[in-house]
């Protein structure tokens, strides 16, 4: 009896390029990595990356992590992140990505909700001790058995992965490579609260294909990824797009404009993947003269309701592809035309590339009965967003739902029939990639003391920014720390409406 062919995994895609061009450039670290993490930048070929992945994978196996168990990762946008994700998959593990801006309470909740067996982090990022954050969170997560870190001065009890990379690989185990197996868990905030969102390999690959085909990225292209990787969009736009193209992946830890421009020129990057507002800002600065190697720009919109009102793209040598992000639910892309303006997005199935007749269907966009945007398709984890069972109806079968309601308010434009996204989900704030319920602001503000202020202001680059004012700034930082706010947010608090 013939067995159906297994769909590819991320490691399968890596192995294909490794076999074809083992000595080609694969991974390039940020030029300012020394400032960000204290490590010197690495430059790795596919063969060198494979040896590192094999060593890390063997360490995870030798540590006793069972196949299909969860390993949590909280790392910056550096080579170590890519190596760890691929090593975990090679060892048959599921990766849970933890954003750098998360608070201690959220780290602990995520570790407990996913029953993670291990956590991997960096000793410091931008001067903040993430090793200490990981150790404290692991102490409150009963399932954690191993805490690993890159960098120096790791706390007692944390295994050094730099030492692992410095020695030959050890024991490995055979893992069935099947794209239908779980690959990652990311985390979303919806009106119902904190929500883990698991995904198989094929879902991640579908997201990467939707972007790479719509942007028309050539095989073997060199990519610059300047988007935080700790989400579905971050992994799909960097890791999946890179593995599908089979070129080199340069990484930039967001953001230093001068360093980013220097990296693009030094590595002769052809594709830039970055937050859309940053891409538009670069496009206004004579992109053709300053970064002549660019041929494609992918702009990721964390606030997709802002796309229609955005400025025209004025760098025709490197067309812009708008990618609409809807939390962890899914995404779709639309490449701008010759006039540089956003194109109309029609409801119904959409191909990749969008305008090409007969192209493969990347997903479907629909308007729900509630006047919100719905998504369905290979990349959309419908089961993870299933509505809660009504109280008192636990024995009653609920009608099946084959789409995810993103919560974004939307309507149809009468003259054109296009979808118009008008507002984000109510009750949810986003500061960069960090999403939280607006009710949390009230709790945080109460801890700041009498006369203090903490509010979310609209921000074109990140959706919102937190701004605060307190008469006793030291007490404000202490109160926010007691609440478990990440030090990157606490230390940025200012007493005169400065951004947090």
From TrEMBL:
<dbReference type="GO" id="GO:0031956">
    <property type="term" value="F:medium-chain fatty acid-CoA ligase activity"/>
</dbReference>
<protein>
    <submittedName>
        <fullName>AMP-dependent synthetase</fullName>
    </submittedName>
</protein>
<dbReference type="InterPro" id="IPR042099">
    <property type="entry name" value="ANL_N_sf"/>
</dbReference>
<keyword id="KW-0436">Ligase</keyword>
<feature type="domain" description="AMP-dependent synthetase/ligase">
    <location>
        <begin position="14"/>
        <end position="331"/>
    </location>
</feature>
<dbReference type="GO" id="GO:0006631">
    <property type="term" value="P:fatty acid metabolic process"/>
</dbReference>
<comment type="similarity">
    <text>Belongs to the ATP-dependent AMP-binding enzyme family.</text>
</comment>
<dbReference type="InterPro" id="IPR000873">
    <property type="entry name" value="AMP-dep_synth/lig_dom"/>
</dbReference>
<dbReference type="Pfam" id="PF00501">
    <property type="entry name" value="AMP-binding"/>
</dbReference>
């Amino acid at each position: 009896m013939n067995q159906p062919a297994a769909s590819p995994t991320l490691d399968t895609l890596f192995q294909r390029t490794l076999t074809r061009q083992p000595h080609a450039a694969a991974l390039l670290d940020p030029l300012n990595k020394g400032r960000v993490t204290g490590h010197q930048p690495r430059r790795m070929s596919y063969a060198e990356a494979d040896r590192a992945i094999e060593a890390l994978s063997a360490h995870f196996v030798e540590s006793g992590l069972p196949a299909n168990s969860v390993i949590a990762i909280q790392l910056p946008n550096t080579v170590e992140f890519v190596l760890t994700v691929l090593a975990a998959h090679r060892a048959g593990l599921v990766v849970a990505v933890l954003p750098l801006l998360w608070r201690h309470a959220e780290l602990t909740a995520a570790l407990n909700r996913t029953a993670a067996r291990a956590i991997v982090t960096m000793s410091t990022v931008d001067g903040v001790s993430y090793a200490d954050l990981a150790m404290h969170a692991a102490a409150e997560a009963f399932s954690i058995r191993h805490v690993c870190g890159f960098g120096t001065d790791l706390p007692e009890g944390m295994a050094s992965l730099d030492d692992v990379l410095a020695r030959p690989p050890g024991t490995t185990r055979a893992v069935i490579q099947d794209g239908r197996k779980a690959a990652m868990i990311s985390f979303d905030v919806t009106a119902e609260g904190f929500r883990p969102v698991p995904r198989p390999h094929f879902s991640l690959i579908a997201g990467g294909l939707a972007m790479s085909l719509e942007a028309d990225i050539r095989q073997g292209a060199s990519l610059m990824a300047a988007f935080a990787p700790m989400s579905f969009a971050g992994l799909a736009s960097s890791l999946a797009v890179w593995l599908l193209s089979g070129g080199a992946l340069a990484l930039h830890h967001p953001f230093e404009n001068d360093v980013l421009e220097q990296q693009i020129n030094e590595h002769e990057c052809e594709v830039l993947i970055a937050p859309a507002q940053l891409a538009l800002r670069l496009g206004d600065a004579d992109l053709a003269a300053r970064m002549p190697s660019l041929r494609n720009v992918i702009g990721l919109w964390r606030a997709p309701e802002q796309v229609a009102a955005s400025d025209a793209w004025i760098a025709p040598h490197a067309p812009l592809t708008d990618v609409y992000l809807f939390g962890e639910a899914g995404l779709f892309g639309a490449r701008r035309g010759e006039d540089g303006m956003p194109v109309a997005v029609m409801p119904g199935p959409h191909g990749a590339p969008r305008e090409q007749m007969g192209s493969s269907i990347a997903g479907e966009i629909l308007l729900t009965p509630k006047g919100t945007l719905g998504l369905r398709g290979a990349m959309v984890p419908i089961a993870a967003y299933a509505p809660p069972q009504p109280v008192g109806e636990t024995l009653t079968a609920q009608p099946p739902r084959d789409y995810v309601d993103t919560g974004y308010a939307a309507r149809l434009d009468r003259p054109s029939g296009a979808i118009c996204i008008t507002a984000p989900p109510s009750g949810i704030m986003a500061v960069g990639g960090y999403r939280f319920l607006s009710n949390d602001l009230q709790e945080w503000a109460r801890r700041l003391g009498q006369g203090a202020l903490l509010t979310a202001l609209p921000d074109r680059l990140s959706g919102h920014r937190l701004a605060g004012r307190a008469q006793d700034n030291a007490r404000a930082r202490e109160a926010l720390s007691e609440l478990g706010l990440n030090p990157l947010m606490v230390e940025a608090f200012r007493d005169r409406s400065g951004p947090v």
